[in-house]
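Researcher: We plan to redesign the surface later, but first we want a full-length starting point. Tokens attached.
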């Protein structure tokens, strides 16, 4: 059993603005733990989490793989989340490198086909389109709504990121995505196969309250 990262340095005020790890986060922990042999077998050098929030997920991954074996880049549009991510890395001796940006946009050219492990627990809750747009608007400062407001079918933010995945993934790279039933899992997997040739596998699924959560792993067909 891999220990959950220590978040005791984060305050209630931090969690007013930054996503508090919840069932979705823990399902992704469990999926990574489930795949630990495969992940170690990749000997990853570069891991990216987009939407790192508190940083606990990347800290957990670094705990699995060894903090000095890979670079752990963590992006978020929420400035307080980026700060929390850095502090969580330091608190757990798992150095994390936060980047305040949307998705991995400014890194795309430099990181083309070089990301070994890619993680995204996105804002997946179905909301109005305007709610999701407001939550993504960085001009007035980003708050907690960026953690959950997903627009139509809860897929508006995720869909934008899905367009980056093929360009980022290394030949043997793996992408882990959290989704909920209203996001239409089979539609996501079909689109990723038809558009980019990526195969998918549901690593874990779990009911948590009203949510039916999934962790989907994507890979190139030629990878293990
Ligand atoms: C559901 S929370 C997940 C937080 C953390 N990864 C976890 O699992 O506990 C979603 C995170 O995505 C971030 N986010 C939303 N839109 C984003 C975007 N366009 N680019 C990067 N991060 C984004 C939010 O600010 C939030 O921190």
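Model: Full-length starting sequence:
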């Amino acid at each position: 059993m891999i220990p959950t990262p220590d978040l005791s340095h984060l305050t209630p005020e931090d969690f007013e603005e930054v996503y508090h790890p919840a069932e979705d986060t823990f399902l992704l922990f469990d999926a990574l733990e489930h795949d630990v042999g495969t992940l170690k077998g990749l000997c990853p050098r570069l891991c990216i989490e987009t939407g790192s929030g508190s940083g606990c997920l990347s800290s957990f991954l670094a705990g699995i793989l060894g903090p000095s074996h890979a670079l752990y880049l963590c992006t978020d549009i929420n400035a307080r989340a980026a700060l929390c991510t850095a502090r969580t890395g330091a608190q757990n001796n798992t150095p994390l490198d936060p980047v305040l940006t949307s998705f991995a946009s400014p890194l795309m050219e430099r990181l083309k086909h070089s990301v070994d492990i890619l993680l995204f627990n996105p804002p997946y809750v179905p909301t109005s389109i305007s709610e999701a747009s407001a939550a993504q608007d960085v001009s007035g400062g980003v708050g907690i709504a960026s953690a959950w407001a997903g627009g139509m079918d809860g897929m508006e933010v995720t869909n934008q990121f899905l367009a980056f995945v093929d360009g980022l993934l290394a030949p043997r790279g793996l992408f882990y995505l959290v989704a909920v039933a209203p996001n239409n899992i089979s539609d996501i997997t079909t689109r990723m196969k038809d558009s980019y040739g990526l195969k998918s596998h549901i690593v874990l699924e779990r009911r948590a309250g009203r949510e039916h959560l999934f962790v989907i792993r994507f890979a190139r067909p030629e990878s293990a």
